[in-house]
Amino acid sequence: MRIGELSRRTGVSERALRYYEEQGLLRPERRPSGYRVYNDAHVSAVRRIRVLLAAGLSTAQIVDVLPCMVDDNGLLTPSCPELGDELVKHRDRIGEAIGELEATRANLDTIIAGDRRAG
Amino acid sequence: MRIGELSRRTGVSERALRYYEEQGLLRPERRPSGYRVYNDAHVSAVRRIRVLLAAGLSTAQIVDVLPCMVDDNGLLTPSCPELGDELVKHRDRIGEAIGELEATRANLDTIIAGDRRAG
DNA sequence: CTAAACCTTCACGTTGACGTCAGAGTCAAG
DNA sequence: CTTGACTCTGACGTCAACGTGAAGGTTTAG
């Protein structure tokens, strides 16, 4: 498929797809005309990129992480344990934020329930 | 304390602290000279801001949830004057933020666990 | 008193992840 | 062959979250 179809199938703009290639995240084939040609593996790659970007990783970090995932089914290879640790650390940071917000919400709930002091 | 000490105590640059005020995240007192004056509540507020930023929330989102986050002994911040529907709305907004972060974390978990079809 | 350290408000610079537009080439359909 | 949709490569614009001086006022130690 060409860039337009990939854009429609992923919901990611053509500009963003070209940018990902520029950053080394995607390496589509090229027709003699210069047109980019993508396949289904690229579709899932783009989805993985989006998930990682939404999780707060930069394209530079994703460049390191992406090769450690098997192309077809998004599996982490066991050959990259360090990168797995990076992802775990990042998940833990998000967990920390969730904890903060949940504690806040719990305090709010007690206040709303009528108590003046929350613990 | 003044901005320099707050910066040292939080590890956040003075420029960033002024930026947070500009975005409505901090409201320090002012001396006649114009100097900003902070207290311990601002120290924990800055830490919360940093956690939420690191989790991928924007300052605009933090503006919505921060004013109703509760200080050390469960005291309401002065920026939550109305104890009725407003608090409930704020709690619900916090709930939305939690939901988004949990979705992000779930996606990360899927990738880390090597499961199929993240996204 | 002076000097160092600290603070103020502009205001332009930077980086990342794109948006947007220009000018030109490509390709399937009529 | 022509039209129109699609694509290409620059290259400048944007927005958030600051960095980095500039030019000057404030506070405190000596």
From TrEMBL, chains A, B:
Residues 1-68 form the HTH merR-type domain. PROSITE patterns: HTH_MERR_1 (PS00552), HTH_MERR_2 (PS50937). The keyword Oxidoreductase does not apply. Transmembrane segments: none annotated. InterPro entries: DNA-bd_dom_put_sf, MerR-type_HTH_dom, MerR_fam. Gene3D superfamilies: 1.10.1660.10. Keywords: DNA-binding. This is MerR family transcriptional regulator. It comes from Nonomuraea diastatica.
